[in-house]
Fold this sequence. Notes:
Blueprint lengths: L5 E6 L6 E7 L5 E9 L5 E6 L9 E9 L5 E10 L4 E10 L5 E10 L2 E2 L5 E6 L9 E2 L4 E4 L5 E6 L4 E7 L5 E5 L3 E7 L5 E14 L2 E16 L2 E4 L2 E8 L2 E7 L24 H20 L10 E4 L17 E7 L5 E5 L5 E7 L5 E6 L13 E3 L4 E3 L4 E3 L4 E2 L25 E2 L7 E2 L9 H5 L2 H11 L4 E7 L7 E4 L3 E7 L4 H4 L2 H16 L4 E3 L16 E3 L2 H12 L23 H13 L13 H5 L4 E2 L6
Parallel strand pairs: 18-22, 33-35
Antiparallel strand pairs: 1-2, 2-3, 3-4, 4-5, 5-6, 6-7, 7-8, 8-9, 8-10, 10-11, 12-13, 13-14, 14-15, 15-16, 16-17, 17-18, 18-19, 19-20, 20-21, 21-23, 23-24, 24-25, 25-26, 27-28, 28-29, 29-30, 31-32, 34-35, 36-37, 36-38
Helix pairs in contact: 3-5, 5-6
Amino acid sequence: MGNGxxxxxxxxxxRHRLKSLVARNAGGNPMMSNTYTYDSVGNIMGIxxxxxxxxxxxxxxxxxxxYDSLYxxxxxxxxxxxxxxxxxxxxxAMKYYDxxxxxxxxxxxxxxxxxxxxxxxxxxxxxxxxxxxxxxxNAGDKFLYDHNGNLxxxxxxxxxxxxxLSWNENNQLSLVFDNSNMSNFLxxxxxxxxxKINSDYTQMTINGQGWQGFVSDRQTLYxxxxxxxxxxxxxxxxxxxxxxxxxxxxxxxTIYCSPLDxxxxxxxxxxxxxxxYNDKSNAVLGMLVNDINSVITIDGLMGTHKLLEDSLxxxxxxxxxxxxxIYYYHPDHLGSSNYITDVYxxxxxxxxxxxxxxxFVEENIRNFDTPYKFNAKELDAETGYYYFGARYLDTRNxxxxxxxxxxxxxxxxxxxxxxLDNPIRLIDPNGMEVEHNSLSDKLNTTLLRIYNSKFRNxxxxxxxxxxxxxxxxxxxxxxxxxxxxxxxxLYVNYRTDKNSEQGSGAMVNLRHETEHGIQFEHxxxxxxxxxxxxxxGQPDWSNSAVNFDLTDEMKARDAGYFSNLSIGxxxxxxxxxxxxxxxxxxxxxxxxxxxxxxxxxxxxxxNNTNPIKIKNSQQFMLPxxxx
Length: 627
């Protein structure tokens, strides 16, 4: 990076999973030196950081994880031996219902032999009001929801915390209120939030009259993903792809400009002059009052609300100044901020996380405290919730505050479960859809981007099919790489050993067999059980042969090798059958030449080109759409 730091990644040559991640400071010393271990299906079993830290910050960490048969995290433990002498350890045990909702969460967090009360608890969840949303716990916690499934009340006695919440018509969180603080959120229609307004309960005298209520003197304006302005200054963000890599803090704006200068727009709401600011502030105030009136009051204490004028504009510098406060992000495999380095390339902040996102370790030797922490999402310090975009996450209870907008995609799973209860391997970039993280599960994400669009489209095509495709990788050299079926599911079997497919490894096999899956989807190939039936008279699909011709195999081999290996001198633009109307005489000559090398394949088409005839026979299995 620009401050002299360097991050390197090493991947397993067989399964393409992240093997190690090393982040070095400007002096070349490792701040973070993570090694990763996995089970046979790609779940992370261990993360070890052998770095000893630097300059009284950082240290060695060790974590291990165990999963159930649905790949849900059930136990975890970890330790941290700090360079400064701090020592932390944690243990976590989870139990779930079949739908993924949490039955029990027991967690202990010890720091220098002292239990940490905010992150140590033993919770058993109740579900009385809604089928998937917890209504309370054995610790006396209580939760209430509106008719849309949004959380509107939470009480957690162990934390001495009561939250009242209000939501807008788009099911977006608009207000969080407790006895002494209030946070309001404004959004651009159904999209991202563009303003956060924080208030404290205050008693004061105005023009000789007593007044009590909430004073909003801390406002944050999200101009765009690259610029955030608040009452203390502004931050510019720089990205590599979708990963935040740099934040610049400080001066650079001027408020000495004419009333029509559009520079005022960065201060919020497109302000043209002071009168315009007053008018728009009053309009915002009206929205806030409506939000306040919509929540339940506690002991009648609500008062009124005051939006302090100029609180946002006062946060900018009056004169342009150099941006000397520059900080660089060094994330883990999930994208969570682990180390923050300063402009000189040395760590200023260090963070570690408990499995569901609570802070495990936090060290800071500078004034800058990044709000972008777990999964690189913003932690609203006033509420304790993480903002993901479409939803907010409660890390302590390990649940979302509202229903997943994409819940129809996961009909058998609780809409409140975070990342299918596997937060070590999976991420949710915007609160709507679970994804494999782009580092540790390279097969499902990075490779789909890096290799080629054809494979990416084929892979997604099979995943979105009405058929059920099971991808099975093995390093057993006696196992064939092939597409098979049991009559109900289809199996994409591919080799992961180094010597498979002339040494090209798993991706050649996977691309090749995935192409055969697409051919089956299109009716180009089929399965032949030669009339075998089981003891009940039903078709027996065990060891059924695949019906395909030379062209089908050429297409699959071409997909596997990216056309960098010529097959019989004909490796591009392969037609779907010998009798394709666009095949020229030269094409057929090349087919004949290729057949010399692949004598086992028929030259003429044996595709499922006559569905009516085949459908009347139990000998063939047809694609779902033509059955």
